[in-house]
């Protein structure tokens, strides 16, 4: 039988030492080892997530008992130490002696028998003294305290504090929200009637999946106790779609009408494109029924469409994959770089969806490695890229049409500052906007601006 901890070690090495993305690596690992029992897959997912999401805290605790600090350790030993510390400090159901013993075995099996004593000594010292570990003083060093407590780089802590006028309680609430575990969120299709929805919910319950309706959107549900996401009832038939609340809000706020022509310029993996297509299909069916009733004849054959674009074949293939599963015939996929103008689209779109590349600080609960990848310079560079894209894609919006600008981050440079730039430099007025803040709104971080072309 495959050793669970060895699987986690390989995953952590790929993420932390080779630059792999957590959500991609984790998805690939869980698919590869789908034959393992449920409790084994849960352990792998939990331990890997804890080691990545709590890395700063774990290193802080390890360093308190090790003369060799984690930064100076050999990469494989560093990951083994983090795995041991995570089991000792964060996982109540794992006996301390088992956590230590398995880490020692793993070090020996991976060719580091000479360091097995070091691993054993530090982790045993940690088990004996874990109740005495003290965090930095919250009053004297509030930023360092928040950094360790929420395993967040200090520059991000400072950024959030400064953005909230050095209000430490608010900053802590946001950090807590950013790092809190998130349940899977799904969108029920607009075309699913009440009976069909109730039937799906019953099937989920029968499979042990707990579904809770969102207070923000009636068709959004939070799912808990999901063992195999790809086997959720209704998913393969396109009746439900995994999508965050903020992403759903973009289409909800757009006010899409029957027969609208919609362009989604940075669409992968396609959630908003498919949501828009679903909404179009539902509205046009309703419109057709009304026409039939009014005229006593078949409704007119007017149809809206969605053009779903992204810059690479790999990204567009993700959209294609989801499109095939959902079965929409009103979506066209296309490889296109959003920074390059397509003259044929000028003035043709009723709605342009511009959910643009961003720092992703709002979704760190789902992608914990973002905090270690992103830099302050990246935020400035991304804000500039967003302006470059907006300078191009706004031209696709017809007069009176709608531009939906959105990001899944919480930085002012990428959100409100870009909104102000649009209003100052492009022919648009602001109709509405929404900011979703982790820890305050109970969601991932998201920003949405709905703008009308003059």
Describe what is shown at a glance.
By secondary structure, the protein is of the alpha/beta class. Helices cover 48% and strands 15% of the residues. Helix 14 links the parallel strand 6 and strand 7.
Judging by the overall fold, what is the CATH architecture of the largest domain?
A: 3-Layer(aba) Sandwich
Portion in helices: 40-55%
Low-pLDDT windows of residues: none
| Strand segment tally | 11
Sheet/helix structural class: alpha/beta
* General form: globular
CATH homologous superfamily of the largest domain? Vaccinia Virus protein VP39
Main pleated-sheet profile = 7 strands, mixed
Number of DSSP helical runs: 17
Strand arrangement within the widest β-sheet reads 7-6-5-8-9-11-10
Give the CATH level 1 class of the largest domain: Alpha Beta
How would you spell out the order of helices and strands?
A: HHHHHHHHHHEHEEEHEHEHEEHHEHEE
Q: What is the mean predicted local confidence, pLDDT? A: 94
Q: Between the first and last Cα atoms, what is the distance in angstroms? A: 65 Å
CATH topology of the largest domain: Rossmann fold
Radius of gyration: 24 Å
The total number of structural domains is: 2
Assess the beta-strand content as a share of residues.
Answer: 5-15%
């Amino acid at each position: 039988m495959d050793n669970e901890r060895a699987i986690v070690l390989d995953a952590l090495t790929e993420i932390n030492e080779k630059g792999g993305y957590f959500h991609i690596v984790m998805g690939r690992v869980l698919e590869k080892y789908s034959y393992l029992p449920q409790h084994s897959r849960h352990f792998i997912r939990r331990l890997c997530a804890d080691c990545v999401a709590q890395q700063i805290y774990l290193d802080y605790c390890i360093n308190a008992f090790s003369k060799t600090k984690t930064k100076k350790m050999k990469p494989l030993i560093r990951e083994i130490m983090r795995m041991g510390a995570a089991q000792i400090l964060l996982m109540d159901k794992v006996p301390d002696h088992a956590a230590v013993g398995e880490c020692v075995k793993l070090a020996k099996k991976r060719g580091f028998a000479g360091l097995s004593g070091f691993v054993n000594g530090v982790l045993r010292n940690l088990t004996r003294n874990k109740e005495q570990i003290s965090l930095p003083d919250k009053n004297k060093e509030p930023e360092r305290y928040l950094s360790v407590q929420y395993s967040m780089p200090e520059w991000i802590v400072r950024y959030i504090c400064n953005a909230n006028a050095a209000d430490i309680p608010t900053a802590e609430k946001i950090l807590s929200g950013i790092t809190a575990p998130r349940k899977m969120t799904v969108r029920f299709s607009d075309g699913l009637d009440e009976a069909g929805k109730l039937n799906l919910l019953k099937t989920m319950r029968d499979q042990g999946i707990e579904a809770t309706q969102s207070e923000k959107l009636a068709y959004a549900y939070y799912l808990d106790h999901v063992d195999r996401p790809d086997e959720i009832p209704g998913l393969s038939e396109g009746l439900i779609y995994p999508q965050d609340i903020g992403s759903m809000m973009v289409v909800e706020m757009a006010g899409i009408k029957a027969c609208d022509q919609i362009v989604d310029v940075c669409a992968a993996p396609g959630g908003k494109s498919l949501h828009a297509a679903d909404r179009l299909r539902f509205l046009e069916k309703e419109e057709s029924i009304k026409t039939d009733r009014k005229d006593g004849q078949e409704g007119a054959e007017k149809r809206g469409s969605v053009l779903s674009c992204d810059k690479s074949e790999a990204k567009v293939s993700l959209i294609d994959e989801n499109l095939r599963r959902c079965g929409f015939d009103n979506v066209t996929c296309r490889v296109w770089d959003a920074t390059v103008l397509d003259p044929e689209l000028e003035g043709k779109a009723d709605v342009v969806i511009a959910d643009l590349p961003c720092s992703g600080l709002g979704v760190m609960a789902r992608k914990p490695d973002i905090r270690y990848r992103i830099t302050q310079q990246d935020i400035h560079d991304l804000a500039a890229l967003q302006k470059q894209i907006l300078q191009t894609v706004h031209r696709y919006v017809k007069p009176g049409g709608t531009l939906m600008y959105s990001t899944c981050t919480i930085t002012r440079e990428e959100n409100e500052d870009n909104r102000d730039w649009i209003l100052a430099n492009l022919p648009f007025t602001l109709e509405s906007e929404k900011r979703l803040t982790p820890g305050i709104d109970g969601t991932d971080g998201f920003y949405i601006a709905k703008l009308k072309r003059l």
